[in-house]
Specification:
The protein is an alpha/beta fold and 184 residues long. Helices cover 29% and strands 28% of the residues. Strand 3, helix 2 and strand 4 form a beta-alpha-beta unit.
Length: 184
């Protein structure tokens, strides 16, 4: 871990390390399915949507055909809205049916597990997938539910007063994963 030019931010993954991690995750996903055409990546807003798009591009380069990907907003299925507050709901975008597919829920960070629980509930209203897996860039611990990722880029134990930020070039003008101390 190295400090960046901003003292309150610690770099967890450099741009190069992030690229290698995404490549590794794409390979791991492919190893779990017998037919890559059954894959369907669903990003969880906000950063999971962009991460699923990057992963789909990486997977397409490996397998030679497009990989279905979209987004699934679980906001209205959360059980903790009073505690965490709401954000602007993003539309769920499913370019294909989830029926009988190998769905990979994609999120940037897993923390308590409540977002993933809500995403699983939201997914049920769109059909019955053959299999549902979870891919996260960072697992920061502090789970409140028994939910674990199938694919994880990096495990970074954190304090509750810290946050993890995934930064992607198309969205942020820089790439990497950073730990940030939140000020009270």
């Amino acid at each position: 871990m190295t400090n960046t030019r901003n003292d309150e931010r610690v770099e967890i993954l450099t741009e190069d390390e992030l690229g290698r991690t995404i490549s590794r995750l794409a390979s791991q996903v492919l190893e779990t399915v017998s037919d890559s055409r059954t894959l369907f990546l669903l990003g969880i807003p906000t950063r999971g949507v962009q991460l699923s798009s990057v992963l789909a591009t990486q997977l397409e380069a490996i397998v030679g055909h497009p990989i279905d990907h979209g987004s699934l907003d679980p906001t209205f299925h959360r059980d903790d809205l009073v505690r965490i507050g709401t954000r602007m709901v993003q539309p769920t975008q499913l370019p294909a049916s989830v029926e009988g597919r190998s769905v990979v829920l994609v999120d940037d960070v897993i923390f308590t597990g409540r977002t993933v629980r809500a995403a699983l509930e939201a997914l049920q209203s769109w059909g019955r997938a053959q299999r549902v897996m979870l891919l996260v860039m960072v697992d920061r611990g502090h789970r409140e539910l028994p939910i674990q990722p199938d694919f994880c880029g990096r495990t970074v134990p954190t304090r509750r007063t810290e946050t993890i930020e995934l930064r992607l070039r198309d969205l942020d003008g820089e790439e990497g994963v950073f730990l940030r101390q939140t000020l009270s």
